[in-house]
Amino acid sequence: MTMSQERPQEVLHLIEPLENTTDLGADSALPVVFNLSDNNSPADVMDVLSLRPFASGEQPWSRSTRLEHVKADAPLRPDGARLVRVATEKGKESVLAEGDGWTLLTNRWKTGVAYVAVSAVTDELAEEILDASVKDATEPPKADETSVEMGFWHMGPHGPVRSERTITADAWADIRGNYTAPVAEALDEVMKLTRDEVAGRLLLLHGPPGTGKTTALRALARAWTDWCQADCVLDPEALFGTPSYLMEVAVGDDEDDNRRWRLLILEDCDELIRGEAKQSTGQGLSRLLNLTDGMLGQGRDVLVAITTNEDLAMLHPAVVRPGRCLAQIEVGRLTRSEALTWLDGSEADPAEIGAEGATLAELAALRKGEKRPENQQAPGTATGFYL
């Protein structure tokens, strides 16, 4: 098909004046123009249609919420709602409904997550319709002692987004033998902490790859679950590079009177906390320190856990100064004796364990019958990315 034969782009104009525009929205009514193309889905159209009454000023009040663990049979709309549009695509259903003085949009995913937004002629009506739509719509997570609810933050196209997932987390007692004795003893103290015993807001786990730092944090999330909510930040560079993102994560919801502490998990943040971080990451390091014990962190029950492969001597001195860290633990290799004990009963060749010991990842591979690479460097001899 030539350019002259292509179908012209369709444009949806929603700009007609509304006779019943409220006084609040009369001076701020906006025309709505939406360009339709082959890239748009029916759900995209519904998103725009749901905003029309709000943008025009007809319904100038808006309320919205995100839900987790939504029941499969929850309608997510009040009784008597008039369906306007319904769109179903892979893994997602969108519903546009309306009633007297209000408009409602719901986006529901098969993962049990939903987004519900209401616009209305008054704030009271918007709140009433939203409450009626989400009433009894969710169910508590299924009790499972081997799992824990963890939040995941990332910067989406329209701002920060948090979603919850159930992750597998072993009890600390079950995995304690995966760590060399000094590390296990240090983690013992961290695991048994309570909210009243928190001193310092930064938890730093550093050491070579494959030593079990992430596994330890999963166990920590389970050990602290009664008083602390663990959230993993998928894009820490964006978190500390975008003030609005940082405020959203740090401030949280002040309306929750029974809120738990929050543990923000930042994995592999070498660039953020190494010695030259101030030059390479700009204000990122300063904002991290401000969150842990500066003005931003005051009155906020927020802890930050960071994992890094960097040696302690390579980290920025401001990060490791006395008093800042709740705990600062070097998660190293198991000694040769500990490694042989760990492999006891398996068919792994003891000769594969050198005098320097082994990491948890190496031991797991040996138990599966894999051999250590012959050209593997001894600890401390790697040159890194720069010569």
From TrEMBL:
It holds the Pfam family AAA. Residues 368-387 are annotated as: Disordered. Gene3D superfamilies: P-loop containing nucleotide triphosphate hydrolases. SUPFAM superfamilies: P-loop containing nucleoside triphosphate hydrolases. GO terms for molecular function: ATP binding; ATP hydrolysis activity. Residues 199-335 form the AAA+ ATPase domain. It comes from the Bacteria. Belongs to the AAA ATPase family. BCS1 subfamily. PANTHER family: BCS1 AAA-TYPE ATPASE. This is ATPase family associated with various cellular activities (AAA). It comes from Actinomadura meyerae. The lineage of its organism: Bacteria, Bacillati, Actinomycetota, Actinomycetes, Streptosporangiales.
